[in-house]
Amino acid sequence: MNTIKPLLLASLLSAGLMAPAAQANETIRVGEPSWPGARIIANVIKVVITDKLGVEAELVPGANAALYAGMDKGRGDVDVHPDVWLPNQQSFTDKYVNENGTVALSEGSYEGVSGFCVPTYMKTEHGINSIYDLATPKAQSLFDSNNDGKGEIWVGAPGWGSTKINQVKVRDYGISDFLEATTEDEAVFYAKISTAIQKNQGAVFYCYNPHFVHALYDVSMLEEPEFKAENYVIVQPDEDAQWFEKSKITTGDQVKTVRVAYSNSLLQRSPEVAALLKRIDLENSAVSAMTYAIVIENRDPAEVAQEWVDNHGDIVDQWLGL
Q1: What is the DSSP string of 178-240?
Q2: Are residues 82 and 120 in the same domain?
Q3: Are residues 244 and 270 in the same domain?
C-alpha cells in the first residue's frame, strides 16, 4: 500500500496542491427557515455543494436569530442562511456582517417585493384598494372571520423579520382599531385562506413575491404610500425592550434585495464552498416556480432542487466560477 510520507504531505499542503483533511471531511450545515422560498433555496444550495463540490451538506431548520448566531460562532453549527431579505433582516446583518465581521453576503441577489394582499374580489366587489381602506368599520366587518366583532389581518409567522415590521404598520396606519394583527405559521394560515377564498369571504394578509400565492390565487397587493426612509423606523426587540413603542412606519416597503449569507469561517474551513456562496445568484421567477412546485404540487423540496440544478447547468457553472 502506497503512503505519503509526513514531510511530503506537509509540503503538498503548504503548496496548496492538496486540500486539508479537515476540509475533505467538513459537513456544511445549511440553514432552512420556514418560508417556502428559503426552504427551496436551501435545498438548491445543498444539492450544488454535494453534487458539484463533493462536500457533505445537511439542512438545519431554524428561525433567523438562531441561524445568524450559529454562523457567527463559526464552529459549523450553522454555515449558511439561504434567503436574507434586506432591509427586513438589516438588524442581523448590521450586527454580524458589519459589526462582528463573522458573516458575509453573496454578491448575487434577486429582488423581492412585499406588502399586504387581498383576494382580487375584495377590490372589485368591496372597494378595498388601499391600506387605508382597512382602517374602517366596513373592513372590520368584512374581515371578521371568527365573528368576535373585530377583523383580522395576518402579519406573518413568528420569527420572521417582517412580522414585527407589519405589527408596527398595522398600528401606525390606524388599522389596529378595526383589525387584529394575527401571527401563526404560514402553512396554518394558508389553509384558512384557502377556505375563505373558496367561500368568497374576506381575507387580508402579508404577502411577498416571489411566492406561490400569486400563481395559486387571484390576489392583489394593496396600495401603500411610496417608501420614504424617514417614515420607516423599526427598532428590533434585541436592541430595545420598548421596540414597539419606539418604532414608527407610515410608508410602504422598499423593494427588497435578497441575498445568501454565510459564515466567514468557511473561508478557511471550506474555501470552495465559500467561493460558491459568494457567487450564487438566483432569479425571482425561478424561486417562485420552485415554491409553487413544493407547496401547491406537494413535491419533495430535495427532488425539485435536484431537478432545477440538473436543468440549469449553465447557471450553476457560473456559481462555480467555470
Answers
A1: TEEEEE--HHHHHHHHHHHHHTT----EEEEES-THHHHS-EEEPB-PPP-GGGEE---TTT-
A2: no
A3: no
